[in-house]
Amino acid sequence: MTATLSPGAWPALVLNADYRPLSYYPLSVWSWQDAVKAVFLDRVNIVEYYERQVSSASFQMRLPSVVSLKTFIRPARQPAFTRFNVFLRDRFSCQYCESRDDLTFDHVIPRSRGGQTTWENVVAACSPCNLRKGGMMPDEARMVPRQRPFQPTVFDLHQNGRHFPPNYLHDSWVDYLYWDTELDP
Predict the structure, then answer these.
(1) Phi/psi of residue 151, each to 5°?
(2) Does the pLDDT of residue 184 top 60, yes or no?
(3) Residues contacting residue 25 through CB under 8 Å, at least 6 positions apart
(4) What is the CA radius of gyration of the chain?
(5) pTM for the model
């Protein structure tokens, strides 16, 4: 379930066997139906519950709000090179003017000048900045990205994803989402 979350949907936060979310952005959640099915198939442990219950003629069960997988899923070492992941690496802001509107991506060294479509040459850019820079080199356009483009790790993307929480976070999820963040003094 990656759509807009609402309290009425009763989603379950899905943790890996080490009690870390499978993904921070998008947040790893299942519908309550998928969570209950996984419980009956003995694929997850229930960590936290909602007050809400479901029942049938033969059983009654509180809905799980947090589940952990019984089998550890090894995280990917390198994130996929996708438009979304470029935006996430760049925190959904134009690397030239910091706008968050009308994002696209820009080749720092234009393709017409031999630039490639790689992590190290692509940045998030708003359409106006992208059009203004056009096929020019950064020094010609006097537009240098605020951050040098780089290939992020999965950890980098998870860290950035924490800055963009979904529309709905149940209170029982907070301890499992932020337990490994650095505490303020």
Answers:
(1) -85, 115
(2) no
(3) 88, 157, 158, 160, 161, 162, 164
(4) 21
(5) 0.67
